[in-house]
Amino acid sequence: MANQPQGATAPTVFQFQSSFEVRVLVIDNEPWFVAVDVCAALEIVNPTRALSRLDDDEKGLHTVKTLGGDQQTNIINESGLYSLILTSRKPEAKKFKKWVTSEVLPAIRKTGRYVHPEAAQPAPAEAPELFSSADQQNLQRLVWLITHRFHFKHAFVQAVWYALRAITGNPSPNRFQVNHIPPLAAELRRIFAITGTLSEAISEAEGMVIKRILRHGENAEKVLAEAKAMLLKAAGEEATELNVCLSRWDEHEIAQFVTRDRRGHGSSYADVQEKLFH
Question: Where are the domains of the chain?
């Protein structure tokens, strides 16, 4: 866990559903959230346990001024925030995620960095860095890995792009920005977990038909009903109810996207390109 980060602004307080105050600091032009505020909004009853599951680079300690004086408090970055959202099974988690992506982050990133209102003469903001062709290719490869196994591939492709646009609050046809990578990676992990579970259920259902009906002559209606129930259960699973421990290969692919590896894969994955809307 990192100690007192440098280059931090005073915290800005955002109001979630008029019930929860969420303090946000900008450290080196990146948003950091006060962990106890986030846990309260997500109704996470054991913040210490939740924070212990985060990677060291997703959390830190920062001194915040309170009515009782200076106090060290846990803070989490954007990647850590999305990890906590995925651990919450409360209905409010979805609303909180939408609030963060549609209100909080746009307020912070109006011009690529947050300019605190107390600054007398803020320096000109730098334009946010846009995705390179290699970034876009890496992202398209991840979309292909998620969708290529399904019969309704085209519908899956566009649904995945819709989810990625929604999590970043970046509508089509705008290019993705480099600062979108953490929420994109978190959302991709969630989608990998969901579609992986569904794909396994489909394979298991096919195996049931082959082994139990065709080879052993079991009652087809009974076996098909079991297979259908299993598929419906898999399709309705929330990411928070799934085993979100992805395969080593999937994690490697996401890591390559996060680190902006430019080696390429020898394909543009044009068949999974996003359908842009102007």
Answer: 12-108, 133-272
Q: Report the percentage of the chain scoring pLDDT > 70.
A: 80
User: Which residue matches tokens 């002559």?
Assistant: 217
The pLDDT confidence band at residue 150, using thresholds 50, 70 and 90, is confident
Task: Kindly state the helix (H) or strand (E) to which residue 116 belongs, with its residue range.
Answer: none
All residues at 6 or more sequence positions from 258 whose CB lies less than 8 Å from its CB, including other chains: 181, 182, 185
Calculate the average pLDDT of the chain: 79
Angle at which helix 181-208 crosses helix 220-236, to 10 degrees, equals 170
Site of tokens 């898999």: 234
182: pLDDT strictly greater than 80: yes
**Total Cβ atoms within 10 A of residue 136:** 17
Residues in the chain: 278
Q: How far apart are CA 52 and CA 50, in angstroms?
A: 5
